[in-house]
Amino acid sequence: MDSPLLYKYDTERGDRYRDDARRPSSEFATLNQVDSRSSEEAAEGTAWGAKNDKILKKMTKAAILKNLPPGIDESAAKQIFNDIVVQGDEVHWSDIAGLEVAKNSLRETVVYPFLRPDLFMGLREPARGMLLFGPPGTGKTMLARAVATESKSTFFSISASSLTSKYLGESEKLVRALFGLAKALAPSIIFVDEIDSLLSHRSDAGEHEATRRIKTEFLIQWSELQRAAAGREADSKTSTRNEAQRVLVLAATNLPWAIDEAARRRFVRRQYIPLPEPKTRETQLRTLLRQQNHSLSDEDVEQLVQLTTGFSGSDITALAKDAAMGPLRSLGEALLYMTKEQIRPMDLSDFEQSLKSIRPSVDQQGLREYEEWAEKFGERGG
Q: Where is the composition biased (Polar residues) (predicted)?
């Protein structure tokens, strides 16, 4: 089955190339032949279908690179395809414990508009920027991947290093190629992890000129995604053009106060992802324990929920992984000669021992800073 994170043009999302009269007819025929073969031979086996999927993706990529939008450098576009377009690794809402408020906000801001663009026009036109902020390890990156999966979007995952080049002017070409390909492969999500490292406050002193140029070009390209849609309904032609404009800049950061004000303004939605609440911690613990043989009762799990107050999602995962080593640590080298069935199950004592070395990664002072920034600029997502 084709992954929604892969770049593709299918009948569900609409093939803009087939609707474009300017495209060469021979190119349409080639793509249509691949589509036809894929549908006719799907019944013969999933292996053959997967092979045709790869052929179609390769041809689609080649077609896009052959007919790049004006101003897009071909070598920069190839680098974006090779290094930034994320393939596979699907994440669904059910894979993320809790955070229902944040999930609902992302559905409203991204998923529904991407799947039903005809309903989200005029005043309902979705925001072009959304920021996920909060302590480390709370699931911000997982949420971004889930959004791409659920909205059947092309997922561009970038960082400051992805857009940095030692050659003068190359970084700006990469930024232009990124946004150009995102429009060509719409619906698309440009995900920027640790965006504070890319769009930090601009200053006259101590900032390299190349860094400033990257920020400026990124903000300019991002601004082009903003459409003044208030108070007007799109006609059919505008609707077709908007199909290619279903592009969202989704970012995550642990330092929201370090983001440049111009970038913060473009993030119309700013969602605070807090530490997991007791019910969320319980769900996560039970999910992790299903993967391992254990003897913990419901009362033991409740006790663990209380003991992990202040832990982030990644802290809880680290704790469970360390506790899972407990039965093996007690054996020493004897584990080399034992069968898997002879090893005792995990119990509460393993977690209590692990709690001596695995501690929360976020202090209370840091939490207060996040709460204050959320109260001033954002909205709570937990």
A: 27-36
Alpha helices (H) in 139-223, listed in sequence order: 140-150, 170-184, 209-223
Cα 185 to Cα 41, 53, 156, 163, 181, distances in angstroms: 26, 16, 10, 19, 6
Burial class (CB in 10 A: 0-12, 13-18, 19+), 139: buried
Residues forming beta bridges with residue 380, ordered by sequence position: 272
Higher pLDDT, 104 or 159: 104
What one-letter code names the amino acid at 119?
A: L
CATH 1.10.8.60 domain range(s) in the chain: 278-360
What does the buried/exposed string (b/e) look like for 270-291 if buried means 16 or more CB atoms within 10 Å of the residue's CB? bbbbbbbeeebbbebbeebbee
Question: In the prediction, which pLDDT does 320 show?
Answer: 93
> Does the reported pTM lie above 0.90?
no
278-360: CATH architecture:
Orthogonal Bundle (1.10)
Inform me whether the pLDDT recorded for 12 exceeds 80. Answer: no
Helices 313-324, 278-289: crossing angle, 10 deg rounding: 30
Q: What is the mean pLDDT of the chain?
A: 76
What pLDDT band is residue 127 in, cutting at 50, 70 and 90?
A: confident
**Is the pLDDT confidence value at 64 over 90?**
no
Question: Quick check: helix, strand or coil at residue 188?
Answer: strand
Please give the CATH architecture assigned to the domain spanning 68-231+240-275: 3-Layer(aba) Sandwich (3.40)
What pLDDT does residue 382 have? 53
Surface-to-core class of residue 365, CB atoms within 10 Å of its CB (0-12 exposed, 13-18 middle, 19+ buried)? exposed
The CATH 3.40.50.300 portion of the chain extends over 68-231+240-275
DSSP state, residue 69: P
- Torsion from C-alpha of 267, 270, 275, 277, nearest 10 degrees: -150
Find the mean pLDDT for residues 110-116. Answer: 86
Arithmetic mean of pLDDT, 311-325: 92
